[in-house]
Structures are given as structure tokens and as C-alpha cells.
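Need a sequence for this fold. Nothing fancy.
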């Protein structure tokens, strides 16, 4: 399948920590699915995991080129990990319908300061 689009995003972990501390659960529950929250809360540095998942969602939205328009929601984009730890997307709702019949690839990484995500979409243009 041909590559139809790419997206990349970087998230400052310190900024993610400050937002989470200020808005508490309200922010987390708006952006992340219950499964993502459980995953991140188990981590030693949960803010790195939240930042990586936030960057992945932003990178995906850049790749599809629409942002959160037309009723799309943050929690329709979910990041999970396979048995070896490789991240991948689970899509729900309108985004699941929008992205059907396309392959979506995700790579995420972080340092102590920043998290980055890169998304490649293969298939027919959206």
C-alpha cells in the first residue's frame, strides 16, 4: 500500500506534569481512555507515558489532516501495546470508520524531557 500521509508530534513531559497536576483527573479523563490511564498510572514516570500517548494522538490527527473537527473525540484514538511492548492504535467511533481499510503505523519514544510520536498511514487518501 502506498504511504498516504505522515504525522509527527513532540510533547514536553514537564508541561504534561503541570497540566495533570493543575486539572487532575478531569484532564486525563477528557484525553485518555480508561485503559490508557491504567497503563500510565502503573509506570514509574507516568507523565512520560501520558506525554507519549498525547504526542501519538496529536501525530495521528496531523496525519489525517483534520484535527478534532466534525465531532471527532480524543478518546476515539487509543494507544495500546502488544506483548512485546510495541505501541499501536485502537480506533473507536467516527475515527474507526474514517480510518477503516488503511494501515496505521506508530512509533513513540521519550527522554527525561520530551516524548515524540511518528505516524504513517498507508492506503487510500482520507
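Here you go.
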Amino acid at each position: 500500500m502506498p504511504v498516504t500521509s505522515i504525522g509527527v508530534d513532540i510533547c514536553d513531559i514537564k508541561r504534561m506534569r503541570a497540566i495533570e497536576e493543575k486539572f487532575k483527573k478531569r484532564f486525563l479523563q477528557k484525553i485518555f481512555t480508561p485503559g490508557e490511564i491504567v497503563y500510565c498510572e502503573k509506570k514509574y514516570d507516568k507523565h512520560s507515558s501520558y506525554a507519549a500517548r498525547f504526542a501519538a494522538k496529536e501525530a495521528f490527527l496531523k496525519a489525517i489532516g483534520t484535527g478534532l473537527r466534525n465531532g471527532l473525540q480524543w478518546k476515539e484514538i487509543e494507544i495500546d501495546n502488544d506483548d512485546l511492548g510495541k505501541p499501536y492504535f485502537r480506533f473507536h467511533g467516527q475515527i474507526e470508520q474514517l480510518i477503516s481499510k488503511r494501515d496505521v503505523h506508530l512509533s513513540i519514544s521519550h527522554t527525561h524531557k520530551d516524548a515524540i510520536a511518528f505516524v504513517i498511514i498507508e492506503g487510500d487518501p482520507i
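For context: The chain has one domain: 3-122.
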